[in-house]
Design brief:
Chain lengths: 371, 544
């Protein structure tokens, strides 16, 4: 049975320093929810508050309508997967998985059958009698997941579960985790600092910084219409270019320093005025033209061939440096030192207030409470 | 949060208050009370007023500092040779080195007297052969010889542990940058091992300073501090509680000062290393290869010689106190007839102490690591106090505290067990704390999130995970407990004689054959314990 999680005005302090000042959040029943942010942003702290391993200095945590602030961690019916897996090294794979069931005092044959079911689900039944030290990282990961899921928890909590795996296995396990979550339909809270991983697995992502949710939305929402500059630069790569917003009658225009301009029809009402802004354009959102075509004039400093794509490091006439990504073809390599014209796709540009705190375009979808 | 752990730390706190703080207070009180009952420093004045007394302090420092230096000079290079170069019979060598460190020092002292003393076999042999008189073994030279050969294994074992944590690439990087051989030893290896060298140095210093069996037997006119405490307390020329207490206080202050200096120094050198690729032993070439073998086997052989000689002696025929030609088990039967209780006593007293040390040690280490608060950190500090208190002082303080009502414990098994626990706990706690810190707390959290209670998690997850470390620590504790003399000698009576005390008694009575028989039994017990250790312990690391 899955639950929804409701957090209201959560506060976490360690001594004098406040890690989470005031955080409210709704996690929907059955969704794959990710807390994403740089280290020290409070994401693991929040997860451990949900699990009951961190004290709560303020606010209320609910599973459905049940207040859990004072419920002992062993009574919360939570499945947890730890960054270091926390496999019991002195117990075999099977006994690791059966551990939670034994604590629930289930009948022996039920423990046996449930354990086997989840060992098979995680494709580790063949290792059931092995000791953990004889398992690879990926296999240990699967044991940890089986152990967390076999108790049929209300909530699955995962704290950077893939960060100890090598790159290839990490991608493989992403799909395994996503698939199993989907199949069981359990409310899952996932913590990671890897934005690509977050995008790959999540239904919705909360981007955190300094204990505050900056943007909460689907992967597409936060990538394409980030709520602020931090989100734009933390999720994926982007080029930030200083520009001016100009009114020309009823229409709005974004004008760059070298005079090049693009129309900007989707500016929100309150920002429809002449002002300095920051334009954020992702490296893959430029059309590259020959020198002299309309666009920003840029000189290629270096080119890096990465297989499907080629990355160009360029500088504009203003001296600003930038990064451009182009699909690799047989004949489209651009030599270093050549000059080109960059025309951004207008609908893919994001425009922020000069302090970066707000996206001035319409279409930002942010579920964060109070946003 | 009130739970079972709260009850435990309150109970442990009270136990420490009764059995450690109160006796320490008793010793302090006795040291500053004049015979008429008023507060005075006359005992301290007496000590520092007469050269006869304060000279013992100078002697102790002399012996201690020199033996610390010598053990480092021997132990550090030996560990370096042993861990960096291929050595023939290296497992055998390591077992010998460990064994050397594990006999009671006074046994070494009396064996050396048998070998090099006035009528020692080597002395007599050399004199008959060449007419030369060997240098005097008694006094400073003898104490230094015995302590050095007894204590260098500690440096060796500590350093070997540190060298195993040095990554091979550090040495290769040094070579690559043009610093190799002797220069590399001094510029790279020594600085990397500095925290360990300091720790080993302190341990040797404490052991040498507190040792009392060796100077008592071989010191003769060269009177040291610990012997003076003992003579003042139990001596044949009349006892003086207050004066003994005053000297004990001085001893504690000195060792505490050294402890703090060492802490300060090692905090300045502290860094953590973890070798991904441990050092690979290389083959030494030519004369250097010969040299490292001669050096290592020579010193280890010299240290092991007394134990071999004792085993030999134990089979010699005796008549009273004189050795006779021919061999038999006569000494064994005679020794066991007179001191037969000493073997069961050793197992009973040592066994109870061992179990208590393990249980209390695990609980305290758990509290210190997982429940840090004011009470547990106070317990932590208190439990470390005995580390700087010489064993004989622990013994005296317990007598002073518990020889009158309301709690009379002198002469009981209990007081022996308490003394052994207090003495051994600092080591057990430190090693358990180290083990526990290696165990990520998330493993316990995982158990709790799976519905296991805190107590169940402790017994089913934490303790089994600590298991291997606990068992190997326990075996070392066992060996140190059965060879302990300095506190026990103050506390024992005829009913609580252990093997070590039995040996000591025979030695002082001049029954060397019987002493040798008991010492051989003790050595066998040690060897069996060590064999179990080697079997159980995966790491083969010994920590004291």
């Amino acid at each position: 049975m899955s639950v929804s999680i409701r957090i209201r005005n959560a506060v976490k302090r360690y001594g004098q320093s406040t890690v989470i000042p005031d955080l409210s959040l709704d996690i929907r029943e059955g969704e794959f929810f990710t807390l994403l942010g740089p280290s020290g942003c409070g994401k693991t702290t929040l997860l451990r508050m949900i699990a009951g391993f961190n004290t709560i200095e303020g606010g209320d945590f609910f599973f459905n309508d049940r207040l859990i602030n004072l419920v002992d961690p062993s009574k919360r019916n939570i499945g947890m997967v730890f960054q270091n897996y926390a496999i019991f090294p002195h117990l075999s794979v099977k006994r690791n998985v059966a551990f939670g069931l034994k604590n629930r005092k289930y009948a022996k044959d039920r423990i046996e059958s449930e354990t086997l079911k989840f060992l098979e689900l995680m494709k580790i039944a063949e290792f059931r009698d092995r000791m953990p030290e004889k398992l690879s990282g990926g296999q240990q990961q699967r044991v940890a997941l089986a152990r967390a899921l076999v108790i049929q928890p209300d909530v699955l909590l995962m704290d950077e579960p893939l960060s100890n795996l090598d790159a290839k296995l990490r991608v493989e396990m992403r799909f395994a985790i996503k698939e199993i979550q989907h199949r069981i339909g359990i409310t899952t809270v996932y913590v990671t600092h890897d934005q690509e991983e977050a995008m790959a697995v999540s239904d919705r992502i909360a981007v955190m910084k300094d204990g505050i949710i900056q943007h909460l939305g689907t992967p597409r929402d936060i990538y394409q219409r980030p709520a602020n500059l931090f989100v734009a630069s933390f999720i994926g790569r982007t080029n930030l270019i200083e520009a001016r917003l100009e009114t020309e009658g009823p229409a709005m225009t974004l004008r760059f320093s070298d005079g090049y301009s693009v129309p900007l029809p989707n500016v929100r009402e309150e920002f429809r005025k002449d002002m300095a802004v920051l334009a954020s354009i992702r490296p893959e959102e430029f059309r590259i033209g020959a020198e002299g075509e309309p666009g920003l004039r840029a000189t290629v400093d270096s080119a890096v061939f990465l297989g499907p794509n080629t990355h160009y490091h360029v500088h504009l006439d203003s001296g600003q440096q930038g990064e451009i990504i182009q699909e690799s073809r047989l004949d489209n390599a651009i030599p270093e030192g050549s000059v080109m014209s960059l025309a951004p796709r207008p609908e893919m540009i994001n425009v922020f207030t000069p302090d970066g705190s707000r996206n001035i375009l319409a279409g930002v979808r942010n579920d964060a409470i109070g946003a | 949060m009130f739970d079972i752990w709260t009850v435990l730390y309150v109970a442990i706190f009270i136990a420490y208050a009764i059995f450690l703080l109160y006796p320490m207070f008793a010793i302090l009180r006795n040291s500053v009370v004049a015979e008429n009952g008023s507060l005075s420093l006359e005992w301290f004045a007496k000590f520092f007023g007469a050269k006869y007394y304060w000279q013992t302090l100078v002697h102790s420092f002399n012996v201690t500092i020199w033996s610390t230096i010598l053990t480092l000079v021997i132990g550090v290079p030996m560990a370096y040779f042993y861990n960096l170069y291929e050595m023939k019979g290296k497992s055998f060598l390591q077992v010998l080195i460990i064994l050397c460190s594990m006999s009671a020092p006074f046994i070494g002292a009396y064996a050396w007297i048998q070998l090099l003393g006035r009528s020692g076999i080597i002395t007599v042999f050399v004199k008959q052969l060449t007419g030369l008189v060997m240098p005097d073994i008694y006094g400073f030279n003898g104490i230094l010889l015995v302590l050095t050969l007894q204590l260098f294994p500690l440096v060796f074992l500590y350093l070997s542990g540190a060298l195993k944590n040095i990554d091979n690439s550090l040495l290769e990087a040094s070579d690559n940058l043009g610093c190799s051989g002797v220069a590399r030893f001094f510029k790279v290896v020594i600085p990397l091992c500095m925290p360990t060298i300091l720790a080993a140095g302190l341990l040797v210093f404490m052991r040498a300073f507190a040792d009392f069996g060796t100077p008592l037997l071989i010191g003769e006119g060269y009177r040291v501090f610990t012997v003076e405490i003992y003579t003042q307390f139990l001596g044949e020329t009349g006892t003086d509680f207050n004066f003994a207490a005053a000297i004990s206080v001085i001893a504690i202050l000195i060792t505490a000062a050294f402890f703090l200096v060492q802490r300060y120094l090692s905090s300045r050198f502290a860094f953590t290393m973890n070798a991904l690729h441990p050092i690979e032993r290389k083959k030494a070439k030519g004369p250097f290869n010969v040299f490292i073998h001669l050096f290592t086997y020579g010193i280890v052989g010299l240290s092991f010689l007394p134990q071999l000689y004792i085993v030999y002696q134990s089979f010699q025929n005796t008549s009273g106190k004189i050795f006779k030609p021919g061999y038999s088990f006569g000494s064994y039967t005679a020794a066991l007839k007179r001191m037969g209780d000493s073997i069961p006593n050793t197992f009973v007293i040592g066994g109870i102490a061992l179990v208590a040390v393990i249980i209390i040690g695990i609980i305290i280490s758990y509290l210190v690591v997982r429940r840090p608060n004011l009470v547990t950190s106070t317990i932590d500090t208190m439990s470390m106090l005995p580390y700087v208190i010489p064993g004989s002082v622990v013994g005296i303080s317990l007598v002073m505290a518990f020889n009158k009502k309301p709690l009379v414990l002198t002469g009981t098994v209990a007081i022996m067990v308490i003394a052994l626990c207090i003495r051994r706990l600092p080591y057990t706690i430190r090693s358990s704390v180290a083990i526990l810190q290696q165990i990520p707390i998330t493993v316990e959290e995982a158990a709790i999130s799976l519905g296991s209670s805190k107590l169940k998690t402790f017994f089913e997850i934490t303790v089994p995970m600590m298991g291997n470390g606990i068992i190997s620590g326990a075996i070392i504790s066992w060996v140190t407990i059965i060879t302990e003399l300095s506190a026990a000698i103050i506390l024992y009576n005829s009913k609580t004689v252990t093997l070590t005390l039995g040996i000591y008694t025979f030695v002082t009575r001049g029954n060397y054959g019987y002493a040798a028989a008991l010492a051989t039994i003790l050595t066998m017990l040690t060897i069996v314990s060590l064999a179990i250790f080697m079997k159980v312990s995966k790491s083969k690391e010994i920590s004291f």
